[in-house]
Amino acid sequence: xxxxxxxxxxxxxxxxxxxxxxxxxxxxxxxxxxxxxxxxxxxxxxxxxxxxxxxxxxxxxxxxxxxxxxxxxxxxxxxxxxxxxxxxxxxxxxxxxxxxxxxxxxxxxxxxxxxxxxxxxxxxxxxxxxxxxxxxxxxxxxxxxxxxxxxxxxxxxxxxxxxxxxxxxxxxxxxxxxxxxxxxxxxxxxxxxxxxxxxxxxxxxxxxxxxxxxxxxxxxxxxxxxxxxxxxxxxxxx
Length: 238
Ligand code: NDP
Known about the structure:
Elements: E1 7-11, H1 16-27, E2 31-36, E3 46-49, H2 55-69, E4 75-78, H3 93-121, E5 124-129, H4 133-136, H5 142-162, E6 167-174, H6 180-183, H7 187-196, H8 205-216, E7 227-230
Parallel strand pairs: 1-2, 1-4, 2-3, 4-5, 5-6, 6-7
């Protein structure tokens, strides 16, 4: 896809959606480094240790990744995310702060660090993995939905700041994807969700990866500040 391998960093790239994204971009010819707290390297991919809730760890992970690939990161996929679901009345400050710190502030830390190299390169792509619930809302996920909605304002503000420097910032909003995160749902919860999805099924992580690959690729150079749903129609109208 690319003329020469582009350095890519995928946070949370060791499993689930992040791993599918990392594999899709590597298949397209990019030089992909995955980052996670464990630092584990999936077969055939390079990895760095990174806790996105810690600024020093993010900075060190980018430096390590840049050393591996021999230059600045050109494509950032901010995918690392967690949930800590409970109803509003029962949600503690810690439940709220922890999810925001990983999902939203973590993406901010990565975007800020990535922007340095992208400005120097005079090109770059940032892709933030949000969720259908960021705009649709979800009972029991006040913290998670707030963090995912925040990514939209962030990508659009980055677009306004850096759009003139050949840097795009977009959001992918997956619906229900078959990963460890959704395997935590009960059979009844799963069935109830599937009933609401016009496509009538959960998606594979590779279907999210295809959208990310498009936004990272040459055909998406004029797309920025967009929210691309990959949700089988679940979030339509939001
Ligand atoms: P998984 O739970 O399978 O994977 C989460 C990933 O995030 C892991 O690689 C994990 O790595 C990493 N991670 C978590 N916390 C941190 C941290 N502090 N620092 C660095 N890495 C971290 O999730 P999915 O693949 O399902 O989800 C990926 C993204 O897609 C998330 O942002 C999620 O919110 C979003 N999403 C998922 C949907 C779904 O249906 N599955 C739907 C919509 C959005 P490690 O634990 O090793 O650090």
